[in-house]
Amino acid sequence: MRICIPVAQDRGIDSTAYGHFGSAPSFIIHDTGTGETVSVSNANVHHKHGTCSPMEAIGKHAVDAVVVGGIGRRALEGLNAMGVRVYLSPGGTVRHIVDALLRGAVQECKPEDACGGHGGGHGH
Description:
Elements: E1 2-7, E2 26-31, E3 37-41, H1 54-57, E4 65-68, H2 73-81, E5 85-88, H3 94-102
Parallel strand pairs: 1-4, 4-5
Antiparallel strand pairs: 1-2, 2-3
């Protein structure tokens, strides 16, 4: 499973999660099958509210899941339309979040969980 998590700074698997998908400076993509972790700069970080392009944001990397503290409804719908499941982050490091996801300890993000606007990069 390839898991994408928004982060403020690239520290690999020990990066701390960032609060919002669309305004995150970068993403860590962790492959649970191979253990490989890569960093992707957010090419869509300066989008206008409501116009986040998930595929631009994650650099066209194929991912199975995204774990976020906050995400706009259009980005959520765009990811879901691509077959990507979106989950609500428990916070902490990428390592902690991946472990929580694999244990089934995170909830899937529903449209009513989506953010109404950018809250300074700190979730809903």
